[in-house]
Amino acid sequence: MTRAYYVTTPIYYINGDPHIGHAYTTIVADVLARTARTRGDAFFLTGTDEHGQKVADAASAAGLSPQEWCDRLIPKWQNLFARFDISYDDFIRTTQLRHELVVQRVFERLRETGDVYLGKYEGWYCSNDETFWLESKLVNGRCPNPECGREVQWLSEDDWFFRLSKYRDRLLQHFLDNPHWVRPRSAYNEMVAMLREGLEDFSISRSSFDWGVPIPGGGGVIYVWFDALLNYISAIDWSRDDPRFHRYWPASVQLIGKEIMRFHTLVWPAVLWALGEEAPKLVFAHGWITLDGQKIGKSLGNAIDPFELIERFGSDGVRYFLLREGHFGSDFSYSEAKIAQRYNDELANDLGNLFRRTLSMLERYRNSLVPQPGDSVFPERFAELPSRVQELIADLRFRDALEAIWELVTALNRAIDERKPWELYKAGDVRALDALLYDLCEGLRWLAVMLAPFLPERTAIMWRQLGLESGLHDDWRETLVWGGLAADTQTSLGDALFPRLELA
Ligand code: MSP
User: Fold this and answer.
1) Residue 34 near ligand 1, beta carbon < 6 Å
2) What does the pLDDT average to over 91-114?
3) H or E element: which one contains 9?
4) Would you kindly state where each structural domain of the chain is located, as residue ranges?
5) How do residues 237-289 score in pLDDT, each as one tens digit?
6) ω into residue 250 within 30 of 0, thus cis?
């Protein structure tokens, strides 16, 4: 069976409104999915994590049942993703029956094989982080997560455990044999160090509250993290020998923020192995967007409202900033000044002006018709660019990919500045003018194709104004052959792609 590309994001807790951090991971996944689709079948999964104490607490504070609360919040999350042109193929909610049945089936299966067993759990529990902490890790008796620091409670209950310790050696070997399966390197190293210290079994049930998937046969609910991780396989119909499942699993890339890498790179592969399935091919634990040096998030109350950012910079303006600003993997800081500057300099100026200048010269000199191509240095100079950009994206180096694309933006702008089409026009040098205008239009067509995964909204507009219909999302190996734009194509000058922002 042909394998397909499968990319996932974490499923987000809906104990409140989405913020820019949630949009970030989802936008990155969208770029990967859109790029992969130009080459073949791809499946992009995102969704919401609706069980657990955090969501239950938020609901009760609002005087609603947890399910009512989730149902009320979902439209806001889905609307945000729609505003960002997120092309997910499936949006999973852990309260959906399709998911709950898989969670229960997994639990039963592992109870049969002995990987899930009944034991006693006693320990310090932070309900905000949904995490048990060793006494030695507590800071002044409180939750050691620097973003949290809340009071912890002593829990003592009969719990179901997952035999994580049994998989410790196999995990370590897997890390050693596959040095790139967890990226970036810092994440990999941290997890190897943790494995060397040893692993304890992992409690996967809760009897202190009831907002979760019921344990088959009774005795509480399944721990929210065990429930949540399974979304990645419940969405693609996990069960023995299901062809759809095997088409997509193991996932090509699982994107997460670095704060949840322990669950995704230690617990998750072990659960998969216990089920006889493979570990994902790559887990990428990216860095955080920070504000004044601190992670942006709900807990700190410094969440940036993504809807407001879209109002100001457009969805593509925000997408561009998030992908261009940091090296993917590292933390980077957000500021209004930074996003505004990139927007004005790179989108409004470099790209937007290039596009508008080209189409308005075409209108003035050539009745908006694409001229005949002539001699050009561009085909040779940029022949390797598309494959280079594809590789950089596949390697999750989004900033480098955008910089590579910008080499073409810069070269086209320079061609205008150096060859001064207005002088060629005055001098009546038809051949030189046509050759230059053709290169500009063809270069812009290339830019639209290569930028489509990053800027889906604006590139669709570029495409229409260039007089093109289908093809924006086709295989680059076929579309990006210099000369693909037909002479006499009717272009149309429209409004500025990225209107310049007046800054205070
Ligand atoms: N529900 C769990 C994940 C379960 S996955 C099986 C969870 N949810 S969350 O709502 O807290 O979302 C966390 C994820 O949102 C991070 O891992 C990251 O992908 C994204 N981000 C949240 N804040 C972020 C930043 N400030 N910066 C970058 N990404 C951020 O954890």
Assistant:
1) no
2) 97
3) strand 5-13
4) 336-479
5) 997 668 889 999 999 999 999 999 999 999 999 999 999 999 999 999 999 99
6) yes
* Ligand 1 atom 2 nearest Cα: 12
Ligand 1 pocket member 238 (CB < 6 A): no
Q: Out of 19, 27, 45, 49, give the residue to mutate to test ligand 1, the one with the largest number of ligand atoms within 8 Å of its CB.
A: 49
Q: Which of 43, 27, 48, 47 shows the shortest CA–CA distance to 91? A: 47
Q: Which residue from 236, 188, 182 is spatially nearest to 45, judged by alpha carbons? A: 236
DSSP H helix total and E strand total for the chain: 21, 15
283, 265 Cβ separation under 8 angstroms: yes
Tell me which amino acid residue 137 is. K
Pocket probe for ligand 1: among 7, 17, 20, 25, the residue whose CB has the most ligand atoms within 8 Å is 25
Considering only CA atoms, which of 313, 459, 364, 423 is closest in space to residue 20?
A: 313
Position in ligand 1 atom list of the atom nearest CA 232? 6
Tell me the average pLDDT of the chain: 95
Question: In the 8-state DSSP scheme, what is residue 348?
Answer: I
Pairwise CA distance, residues 159 & 252, whole Å: 33
Compute how many other C-beta atoms are within 10 angstroms of the C-beta atom of residue 493. 15
CATH for 336-479?
1.10.730.10
Output phi, psi for 76, to 5 deg: -65, -45
Distance (Å, rounded) from C-alpha 54 to C-alpha 224?
Answer: 10
Contacts of 186-191 spanning 24+ positions with Cβ under 8 A: 186/329, 187/258, 187/261, 187/265, 187/285, 190/261, 191/261, 191/262, 191/265, 191/266
In one-letter notation, the amino acid at residue 329 is G
Q: Is residue 13 within 6 Å of ligand 1 at its C-beta? A: yes
The band of 28, judged by pLDDT with boundaries at 50, 70 and 90, is very high
pLDDT at 453 over 90: yes
pLDDT at site 279: 98
Distance CA 390, CA 397 (A): 10
Distance CA 261, CA 259 (A): 6
Dihedral, 133, 137, 138, 139 alpha carbons, nearest 10 = -150
**Euclidean distance between CA atoms 252 and 180, whole angstroms:** 12
Strand 205-206 vs strand 202-203: parallel, antiparallel, or unpaired? unpaired
Compute the distance between CA of residue 161 and CA of residue 202 in angstroms, rounded to an integer: 5
* Rounded Cα gap, residues 362 and 487, in angstroms: 12
- Residue from 471, 464, 450 nearest 493 by CA: 464
